[in-house]
Amino acid sequence: MGRQPADHLGSAPPPAEDDTARLFFALWPDAATRAALDGMAQALREACGGRAMQAPHIHLTLVFLGNVATRRIPELCSLAAGIKAPRFEMAIDRVAFWPHNRIVWAGPGACPDELQRLVAVLEGALQSSGFRFDARPYVPHITLLRNARAAPPQAVAGIRWRIADFSLVQSLRRDNSTVYEVVQRWPLGVCRT
User: Fold this and answer.
1) Count of domains in the chain?
2) Residue 141 appears among annotated catalytic residues
3) Is-catalytic flag, 59?
4) Could you name the active-site residues (predicted)?
5) Domain membership of residue 147 as a residue range
6) Residue 6 is assigned to a structural domain of this protein
7) What is the pTM of this model?
8) By the 8 A CB rule, do 37 and 58 touch?
């Protein structure tokens, strides 16, 4: 009968060198904003067909990292804790359709300066720390429908979203579907008026 080393008793073994997690930084809506976005998705589904995002998974990606070694997650959390950015409000007043992947999405008609700066600061910190990330031009969007059959109507009732924090999120496969779990959240500073 072999014995485990004492430092591993009662805990999971340390992650293997190649263990990875699929990660991204995101804005995670509060309950009222999430309900409003879910209502928008349900209304658009009537017009466009497709499958609505599950309400608990509605988010706006800031920076997509992809697969990251799990041993580097504490480093990511430390990096994010050092981000200084103000709280802000954003109008979700635009809907659009990407025909190549049949996605209906919502976003701001004009990207707030605070959002652009938050993304730029995150990307700069990630680059300085040697993290790879999706460096395509940033298009702030919230996926509402997948497998849509038609483009949405252009007129939508806008939603005001007060952004008070940002999150590191892990994308997981469970029961043949994707689920998102918030790893950690960080508050933004006081809103400028």
Assistant:
1) 1
2) yes
3) yes
4) 59 (proton donor), 141 (proton acceptor)
5) 20-187
6) no
7) 0.86
8) yes
